[in-house]
Amino acid sequence: MTIAVSTRSELATKHGLGALIRRLLLDGAPSVVIEPPAYGVALNADLDGLRRLEAPVSGMIGPPIPASDAPESTVASVEKNARRSSVEALAGALPWLSVLKCRRLMIPIGPAGSYGEAELRRKLEDPAADRRGLVAAFRKDNAAQRQSHATLMCRELFDLRRRMDGALLLLLPTDDPLSFLDPETADWILGDQKELGLAIDLGAVHAAETRGADGLSTWFDRAAGSLGFILLADHDGRGDGSLLPGAGRLDVANFRDVIGRRTPVALRCDPRASYDDVKASAAEASRRLGPVGDLAAW
Known about the structure:
Helix content: 40-55%
Number of helices: 13
Strand order of the largest sheet: 1-2-3-4-5-6-7-8
CATH topology: TIM Barrel
Structural class: alpha/beta
Number of strands: 8
Number of domains: 1
CATH architecture: Alpha-Beta Barrel
Largest sheet: 8 strands, parallel, barrel
Distance between the termini: 18 Å
Mean pLDDT: 89
CATH superfamily: Divalent-metal-dependent TIM barrel enzymes
Oligomer: single chain
């Protein structure tokens, strides 16, 4: 394999993060992106052990240790305490970034939990629903509240960026169709906080699109200038966007020009996949993409 690979794998839970990283590097991965097997789960790793490993790390996703009182909280939450807990947990990544000699922290942005979301989710479950229309109408009807909440989120992100001086913070939309980070709110937030950037998971965005969210073309049209990392994953067309590239409906070769030679890129593991499947997917993705996301430009 000649492409960076993430550690979102149950193998890290079973054998330890260090063991998984060591195996990936031995099999040719030029670097790794460190993340737990699921959001809201702590990394199964010893920081001193990772220091001794001296592995090249091109990014981290999420906090290494989630907030104990709200493990799946997001900096986009409408609940102030949940937002603050999320910021504190993310700030805990600073010593990890320092030890790993890594600058990039990708921050998953989930739903805000605002009024009306629960009812909208019930409507989106109807197979006959116009999901795209329902999500668009919800955003339009709540435009003022969304802008006000984006301002609150900017304050939290400003505080986090101040505490993590030297780190590059990249906002990452999740596969939830009601993730607060959509192309419109990204315009507002990244326009206000120009030092921030954007990370995109191809599989997650496709999965969210099947349930009413914006597709990749909208993201690339509106936010390409802020793009700081691309995570390669696949989707099954029914809402699962965590598949390995090649295991679903996505042809990664279609994104060669979008990725280019200067955008960092990594294969994002399917937590359920075997190591042999991860290795085969990375080799095929490397072959189909060619020389993109070169390490020299990272």
